[in-house]
Design goal:
The chain is built from 18 helices and no strands. The chain is an all-alpha fold. The chain has a single domain, classed as MFS general substrate transporter like domains (Growth Hormone, Chain: A, Up-down Bundle). The longest helix is centred in the N-terminal third of the chain and has 33 residues.
């Protein structure tokens, strides 16, 4: 949300380094890469509810700290802590959906949930640009802290536990206290020591990352796509102010096409992936996770991503009216959202018992690239340009080379899962 204000912050701290400017955005995403290693194991041992509540309390506090920061060091530190606490929803949101939703309703729910962390960086700067111009960049964080603070009492009153083992364990604990019978146990309780449970839970995201090709390769696909998006988002303000003369307020509007594209992707592909599952069951066939990767849906989405990149880079470089590169960004984000919908639903269907750990693995990969790739964005564009033959063309060809991954897992995914079905 404070992306349009980065030039003002850089001027205020007397540091015109493009790396410093970009890192103000990236360090928040870097927190997303570290937090899931702790959040996912805790959620699969003790449940989701308290993590949501305490995560939001910490996020609100660290956002206030960011608003009060008096130096670049404090600003970096609190931005990192915001990411570490804010990643709770990104990590366990899909787990809550898997707890509550059957497969035929899960696609739309997952796509709407996944829209949040992608739509925020694209739509937030629209309001942020005008807020920064009117009240200064610190008010971005004051506004975020106010909104997050409102949800603290709401979450305490409204949120309920969804993780079945935690629900049954809480019920068994109440019965033990009520009856005095210490033999009452949840039927889902694992008969292992707590230290062993913690070790297994902590290792699960790492095991998914290194020992299950289905998660690793699809996670890399999402990570690279997410990194490309963040690279573009980190450079929108500079591109549209330098090439098209936008000011701080109107430069925020350059993020809007990405948000529109994502909403279109959610509305279209979230419904479509559920429709495919329903039709499979209506024909009396067993639903397989690979149904989420049907080429009729996945391949056009995957191709839209590089096409949008080519359109954006080539038209900016050649001075075409600003509406055309914005259309390119919108097409790219429609494809990105469709691809992420396919992959995330596929992985949740394939590993429903550890959906939070699967999402943690995806979040770690995509956040690392989302944090690090933009650091070289402005230097890359300065050296290579925006369009042909390098710049965004290079990114487009990378995205194009990833398309066979989806087709391969649609054809061979079940066989690969069977071969690498390690105990999780």
């Amino acid at each position: 949300m404070f992306g349009p204000g980065i030039p003002l912050i850089v001027k205020e701290i007397h540091d015109d380094s493009s790396v410093t400017a970009t890192f103000l955005l990236s360090i928040y995403v870097l927190g997303f890469a570290l937090g899931p290693l702790l959040v996912a194991p805790i959620s699969e041992l003790y449940g989701r509810r308290y993590l949501y509540i305490f995560g939001n309390i910490l996020f609100t506090g660290f956002t206030i700290g960011t608003a009060l920061s008096s130096s670049i060091g404090l600003l970096f530190a609190f931005r990192l802590l915001m990411g570490l606490s804010g990643v709770v929803l990104l990590t366990i949101g899909s787990g809550s959906i898997a707890d509550m939703m059957p497969p035929e309703k899960r696609g739309r729910a997952v796509s709407i949930w996944a829209l949040g962390p992608l739509l925020g960086p694209c739509v937030g700067p629209v309001a942020g640009g005008y807020l920064i111009r009117a009240a200064g960049w610190r008010w971005v964080f004051w506004l975020i802290s106010i909104l997050a603070g409102i949800f603290i009492p709401v979450s305490i009153l409204v949120l309920r536990e969804t993780y079945p083992p935690a629900i049954l364990e809480h019920k068994a604990s109440r019965l033990r206290k009520k009856t005095g019978n210490e033999e009452i146990r949840s039927r889902l309780e694992q008969q292992t020591r707590m230290s062993e449970k913690l070790r297994l839970a902590a290792m699960r995201p790492i095991k998914l990352l290194v020992a299950t090709p289905v998660v690793t390769l699809n996670g890399l696909y999402i990570a690279i796509s997410y990194g490309i998006l963040y690279l573009l988002v980190a450079t929108f303000t500079f591109v549209y102010t330098e090439y098209y003369g936008f000011d701080e307020g109107s430069s925020g509007l350059s993020f809007l096409p990405a948000g529109i594209g994502m909403v279109v992707g959610v509305i279209g592909f979230g419904q479509l992936t559920d429709l495919i599952v329903k039709r499979t069951k209506a024909r009396g066939l067993e639903h397989k996770p690979e149904d989420r990767l049907k080429p009729i849906m996945a391949v056009p989405c995957a191709l839209a991503l590089p096409f949008g990149l080519f359109l954006y880079g080539w038209t900016v470089q050649n001075g075409v009216h600003w509406i055309v590169p914005m259309l390119g960004v919108m097409v790219m984000c429609i494809g990105l959202m469709g691809t992420m919908t396919c992959i995330q639903n596929y992985l949740i269907d394939a590993y429903p018992q550890c959906a939070a750990s699967v999402t943690a693995t995806l979040t770690i990969l995509r956040s690392l690239l989302g944090a690090l790739l933009p650091l070289s964005g402005l230097e890359m564009y300065d050296a290579l340009g925006l369009g042909w033959p390098v710049g965004d063309s290079w990114l487009g060809f990378i995205a194009l080379s990833l398309v066979p991954i989806l087709v391969s897992f649609y054809v061979f995914g079940e066989r690969i899962r069977g071969r690498f079905n390690s105990k999780l």
